[in-house]
Design a protein that fits this description.
single chain, 62 residues, 2 helices
Length: 62
């Protein structure tokens, strides 16, 4: 889903009261499922297999 206007990562985190990892000025222009993501999209985990991959990724970047 494309947003009408882009938001920064920081704006979205404040809106939903969430922490984030990354550039606070990163522009987010859409929301999508992980298997349909496009550049500028914020994604979410909707299946356990993706959650496991994400948790492994978090271990690697520490």
């Amino acid at each position: 889903m494309k947003l009408d206007i882009p938001y920064t990562l920081k704006d979205i985190s404040l809106l939903i009261n969430a922490d984030f990892v990354g550039d606070p000025g990163l522009l987010i222009s859409g929301l999508n499922e992980i298997h349909m993501v496009e550049p500028g999209d914020l994604t979410f985990v909707d299946h356990q297999k993706y959650l496991i991959c994400y948790l492994f990724y978090l271990l690697l970047i520490q």
